[in-house]
Specification:
The protein has 11 helices and 16 strands. By secondary structure, it is of the alpha/beta class.
């Protein structure tokens, strides 16, 4: 299991050499708290630790205003983007059209560029001008307070929170603990990892240790859930960011097959969640018994409220 310092280092080493050199020089304490690295063409290199925006100087020192910060050039963006795509941008077009790529270690890179439309849909994104690297972390034990309250499971669990509140971090730890019986009984656990963000890639290639989970990587959530039900006899199915009509249908089928569904959804509050039609459809499937609302970006993965749906 990687610690916070290793997670930061593994992400930074995938950037172009000059950016990597600057970002590896920041203080060790900051490396452990950085959640995002924001690179914008012609703009200061910025970091976010969940509470503040920080800027990095060429010597690695941290400042709180952009005047002396290291400037990320267009060449830095171009070289880094190609490197993150494994020097095969064409092979990542499906992800790029969706506005992100997932890289080794489970780090997710958001993209800004120019969209080309075909038939009213995005056909490609070119002229990439900014990158947002979200550091994937495993926080061992982060789910223990939640699991203590919801196990033994009596139904599915829907985890809601605003961006960067640790939904994926919490799901990773839940998967690891349920599948190995840490603090609870062992349950056959299957992870549907559509974007490669929950598990990274293979563990041998810098992935994330999810214990004894069966992992279906690259499967659309709907197809993955049905594949798991057909062939893996899971007691628990875990997936990230549900909400589409296909997701609702698959979640219902998975629950009807006897599996406990544990999934996440974007929503900063219970009120906001209940105002969203996709959330209502998910809840109406009957697949979820418990709602976990996450706290804030200051405490990623920490529950602010646990209630019955």
């Amino acid at each position: 299991m990687k610690d916070r310092l290793e997670c930061y280092t593994s992400a930074v080493k995938m950037l172009c050499a000059e950016l990597s050199g600057v970002l590896l020089r920041i203080p060790e304490a900051k490396k452990q708290t950085v959640q995002e690295i924001r690179l914008r063409s012609g703009k200061p290199t910025a970091l976010s630790d969940g509470t503040e925006t920080l800027f990095v100087c060429q010597d690695g020192s941290i400042v709180y205003s952009p005047e002396r910060a290291f400037i990320c050039t267009r060449r830095h963006i171009y070289d880094t983007f190609r490197q993150l795509c494994g020097f095969s941008v064409y092979s990542r077009q499906e992800e790029i059209r969706n506005g992100y790529i997932t890289i080794k270690g489970g780090h997710r890179v958001g993209l800004c560029g120019t969209a080309s439309l075909k038939g009213g849909e995005i056909a490609s994104v070119t002229d990439i001008t900014s990158l947002n690297i979200r550091i994937a972390r495993q926080i061992a034990g982060s789910s223990a307070p939640v699991l203590e309250k919801i196990t033994p499971l009596s139904g599915g669990v829907l985890i809601a929170g605003a961006p960067s509140t640790g939904k994926t971090t919490l799901l990773r730890d839940i998967a690891s603990r349920l599948s190995t019986g840490l603090g609870c009984r062992i349950m056959r656990t299957c992870v549907i990892d559509e974007r490669g963000e929950l598990s990274g890639s293979s563990e041998e290639n810098g992935g994330i240790d999810l214990g004894l989970c069966d992992i279906l990587r690259g499967y659309p959530k709907g197809e993955g859930i049905m594949q798991a039900v057909r062939s893996l006899s899971p007691q628990v199915i875990i997936c990230d960011e549900v909400g589409t009509e296909d997701d609702c249908h698959a979640v219902a089928q998975g629950a009807n097959a006897g599996a406990h569904i544990i999934a996440s959804i974007h929503a900063p509050s219970v009120d906001e969640l209940m105002r969203r039609s996709q959330a209502k459809r998910l809840i109406e499937t009957g697949a979820f018994r418990t709602l976990v609302l996450l706290d804030s970006t200051d405490h990623p993965g920490r529950a602010a409220e646990i209630t019955e749906v």
